[in-house]
Predict the structure.
Amino acid sequence: MSTVAGTRIAMPCWRESRWLAVCELALVVSLVFADIHRLVPFSKTPFYLVLGWVSLRLRRARWRDVGFSLPAGWPRALVLGTLAGIVLEVFSSFAVEPGLARLFGKTADLSDFRSLVGNGTLLLVVLAANWTLAAFGEELSYRGYLMNRVAGLGRDTTRAWLASLILVSALFGWGHVDQGLTGQVQAAVDGLMLGLLYLGSRRNLLVPIVSHGVSNSLAFVLIYFGHYPGL
């Protein structure tokens, strides 16, 4: 609060400063670079979650404020998320990935998952990690935290949310660098669709969380049976 000619003028709080948001996004990009150079143990997602939690706490907000709550009519949202996850996986694996493979001349690199073929014990471990780190963790991180943070830089206008959808989806794809260019673009398209589900659900995370979990679960089951395209 400052005073000019006897008039009190409210100054923006540092908690809502754009510079704070820019610093947070710089940390996110730094984590991607660190992951590319194998400097991040296991997964970036826990680091994103910690950063998101700290950011929300500093701004006196909660995960609920970015959509992590049960919406009214949540059983319908569960069904919608399940159906959307099935459609997402079929579209991504049998339309997007083959099309990108023809475009770039190479399928997505899924060599990290070859040990999953026929391994029931590993399948259970991967499914558990999928629902914790990918479905919940990545949706909280990318759609919940990052999309809101980027849109906030543009004052939450319609254009800001559109830019946020595109930029965060691209970041989501970039984070799959170990799957090659085809895998990265495929993941970016998946991120775009999950982002649209988030926005279409009035920025509630339940539908994209369920959709993400179901889509990945179907992919891992297909890999287990050796029927995933390009494996």
